[in-house]
Fold this sequence. Notes:
The chain is an alpha/beta fold. It contains 11 helices and 9 strands.
Amino acid sequence: MALEQYLRERLKHKDMLLMTHVVCGYPSFEENLKALEVMAEFDVDLVELQFPFSEPSADGPLFVKANQAAVSSGVHTRDCFQFMKKVAELFPFKLLMMGYYNTAFKLGEAEFMQSLQAAGGSGYIIPDLPLEEAGEMHRLSAEVDLDPIILMTPTNTDARLKTLGEAAKGFVYAVARKGVTGSKTQMDAEVTSFIEHCRQYTDLPIGVGFGISDKTDMDFLRGKADIAIIGTAALKKWEEGGEDALRGFFSELLG
Length: 255
């Protein structure tokens, strides 16, 4: 099932979906699997599997640390694809590759797409690849039914949002604020206005990420966003207390 269709089917039964995030190999693939088991317990809809990179420019300090630790421990792109395949076979949620263009460039764009499709991925998020340079990637991904997830940001002009909306597939990732991941975002009228602004340029479901960390944020986004995107807050809980802390986090988040 194509990603957009999957999301629309899920939205018939939920007022808002949830996308979470795991850095492949951090702290280990075994711990990744345990975290994903918890996420499946809470019926998460989408998971970004981040392929570690030494210079994750869109990420905040916690994910930078996680990426560097995974790289230092020898996590390779092929390990991430093997892990994705295993996860796709075990769990019902859809998987996205999240990472940086160097990963696809080193492997070769065609081989990257073929590997991602074979591993059970539904699409990819590559925040450092400008749309103007993504033509071949988008062509190749269309051939294997993978969706490039486009980011819309508060700094985009109307003309840019229109261009981004026309290129988007699957859903749109609306970045709630300027900067990198990890910092708390103030949920206010400005965020609401930005989401409404994004909707002028796409009919796709809209996911909102960067700084969403608790039930208050989730409640604020209901009726505004189609997907809430949680990353840093979940990893913080895992580091604090593993499975039990993560289970408690999702229980409170979705309670």
